[in-house]
Amino acid sequence: MKKMQRRVSSSVSLMAACAAALVVLPALQAQDSIGSSSSVPEIHEQTLPRIWVGISANMSPLKLFTNSSNTNSNGDFLSTTVANGQAGGGLNLSFHLLHNYWLNIGGSYYFGGYDTSDFINDTAGTVYVERTRARIFDFPVLVRYTGPKFRWSRYSFYELGGTLRLTTSIDVHETAADENGYFCCAPTTGTRFKNETEGVTVGTGLVFKDDFGIKSAPEIRYTRYLNSAIAGPTVGTMRNQLEVAITFGR
After folding, report:
1. Residue burial 107-139, b: 16+ Cβ < 10 Å; e: rest
2. Are 216 and 150 in contact (CB under 8 A)?
3. Burial (CB count <10 Å: 0-12, 13-18, 19+), residue 61
4. End-to-end CA distance of the chain, in Å?
5. In 3-state terms, what secondary structure has residue 146?
């Protein structure tokens, strides 16, 4: 069942990326057709500085965490609700390497967590509650291609590289409750935490520069993480992540 869920999550990520591309492609193709079509202008080399820095707004259309529930033979259950911090922000540094290739180094921040109610380990009417929050930092290092071949717009680029995810400030609170109210202490959590997680990232996007010298770069990235930063019986971080971001800089 878990393998099937992973396959579904991966398929949804790819379908979302394709759908987004299909929405913007016709408009971009129409824009590209205006004027001379004899050559593809290299907007990166002609108008962008060799190094530029921008502030990004990021969003994950999919969840950062997965959640489920377990039920034993007595009908007791272990269930988790998630607080998905699907919106975040960060910084991006773009550096022109040579010819049609750029190096993009970024950093984005998310905050999220989950709450778990444990009735399976209930003893004498006791309910265990686990509340966890964490700060998630993603650091992608990507090589961008902006050459004339395989581009779906004269403003487009492709990127490929890796992402390091750091999960920090993991705050776990465990309490127990009976009919008289809350009291300490709950059993030690069975959730596993991994501070560093690596992933493989691919993406595509656009880059523009207006008359005031402000650069904007909307993009879509897909990352497949090699491990889950947080993994428990009914909760875990998504190993397949789709991210939509837009960067503004000078």
Report:
1. bbebebbbbbbbbbebeeeebbebebbbbbbbe
2. no
3. middle
4. 48
5. coil
Q: How far apart are CA 11 and CA 13, in angstroms?
A: 5
Rg (the chain; Cα; Å): 22
Segment 150-187, tens digit of pLDDT:
878 888 999 999 999 999 999 988 888 776 766 666 66
Instruction: Write the single-letter amino acid at 120.
Output: I
The total of other beta-carbon atoms located within 10 Å of residue 202's CB is 15
List, in sequence order, every beta strand (DSSP E) within 25-100: 51-59, 65-67, 69-71, 77-83, 87-98
Asked if residues 194 and 165 have their Cβ atoms less than 8 Å apart, the reply is: no
Q: What is the number of other CB atoms lying within 10 angstroms of the CB of residue 200?
A: 13
pLDDT digit string (tens) for 175-230? 887 767 666 666 677 788 999 999 999 999 999 888 888 899 999 999 999 999 98
Tokens of 8: 């579904």
> How far is C-alpha 161 from the chain's CA centre?
15
- Residue 20 has phi, psi (to 5 degrees) of -65, -40
The reported pTM is 0.74
Rounded to 5°, angle at Cα 240 from 77 and 247: 125
